[in-house]
Amino acid sequence: MNKNxxxxxxxxxxxxxxxxxxxxxxxxxxxxxxVEEDTExxxxxxxxxxxxxxxxxxxxxxAAKELGLDAxxxxxxxxxxxxxxxxxxxxxxxxxxxxxxxxxxLELKAGIVQGEVYDTSKVKQLATIPSKEVLIAKLLGSxxxxxxxxxxxxNAIKEKKESAE
Length: 165
Prior knowledge:
Blueprint: H1 3-21, E1 24-29, H2 35-47, E2 50-54, H3 57-66, E3 80-85, H4 91-102, E4 107-113, E5 116-118, H5 120-127, H6 132-164
Antiparallel strand pairs: 1-3, 1-4, 2-3, 4-5
Helix pairs in contact: 1-3, 4-5
């Protein structure tokens, strides 16, 4: 077998594995970003626990077809970067969307979230959802607030009864 073909098959297998493992995959057009901007973006993605890669579109298309994700193929035209989020579903979309606000050259194209292909508008909606940690903190805060109000109320009743005696 041709050495070049073996390399391509290995890359397709790698991409396929990443697509299967990732909770969310976001495709973005990065054409026009400077090296400094790209480095800054990669740093922000790394800090958020997101893997960021650039593969040949044909190899990504082959891997996606093998997984039954043919709907992503139309978005794989031109220079496309891929952000893989393994833990937090919203992280890749959120980081890329925030970065795109300041750097107009970066454009969100599409995404794959838990096996479903999202268009640009759905990816932008996904980007507005806070991280898992923030949502948990909000939930705990909303549970804690009524309990602390109840404790204050009960304490006030106790103090009132004590002062009346």
